[in-house]
């Protein structure tokens, strides 16, 4: 069983871009979305596709299972998704022993930029880059699931960044 341990932050400046990779476009949507579990499909700009099952209520740690799937099947799953398809570009930025993932949202959430860092344990305390703003770990309005289901709207999220 894989554990996902991550923290999430708003991004306060563009300084991360100097250290970022070229980024990859992602389209994602939810097939199942409940309080304690979700099944998500993602299609990447390089042609890969993946489904991810996440289980758990915990703010910091959840069980996570990921599987590569055929792109055509993933496209079909998107047509059956609940809520909206989220579009974003994900960049990876190394910083002091951790790799940060920066999501730059498109569409209704354009202007929202969120940084996530995966941790090796709950006790892991990564050094925060100077471009990281307020921590939003556990704030449901910043979850992709909430954004896809319309639980939060893009305008109010942009105002909070």
TrEMBL record:
The active site is at 30 (proton acceptor). Gene3D superfamilies: Hypothetical Protein Pfu-838710-001 (2.40.320.10). It comes from the Bacteria. It holds the Pfam family CYTH. InterPro entries: CYTH-like_dom_sf, CYTH_domain, NeuTTM/CthTTM-like. Coiled coil: none annotated. This is CYTH domain-containing protein.
């Amino acid at each position: 069983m894989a554990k996902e341990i991550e923290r999430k932050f708003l991004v306060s400046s563009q300084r991360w871009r100097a250290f970022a990779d070229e980024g990859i476009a992602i389209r994602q949507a939810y097939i199942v979305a409940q309080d304690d579990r979700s099944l998500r499909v993602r299609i990447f700009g390089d042609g890969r596709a993946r489904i991810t099952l996440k289980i758990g209520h915990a703010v910091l740690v959840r069980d996570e299972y990921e599987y590569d799937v055929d792109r055509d099947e993933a496209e079909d799953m998107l047509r059956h998704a609940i809520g909206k398809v989220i579009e974003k570009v994900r960049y990876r930025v190394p910083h002091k022993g951790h790799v940060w993932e920066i999501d730059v949202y498109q569409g209704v959430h354009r202007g929202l930029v969120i940084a996530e860092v995966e941790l090796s344990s709950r006790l892991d305390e990564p050094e925060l880059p100077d471009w990281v703003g307020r921590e939003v770990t556990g704030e449901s309005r910043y979850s992709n699931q909430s954004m896809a289901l319309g639980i939060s709207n893009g305008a109010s999220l942009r105002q909070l960044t």
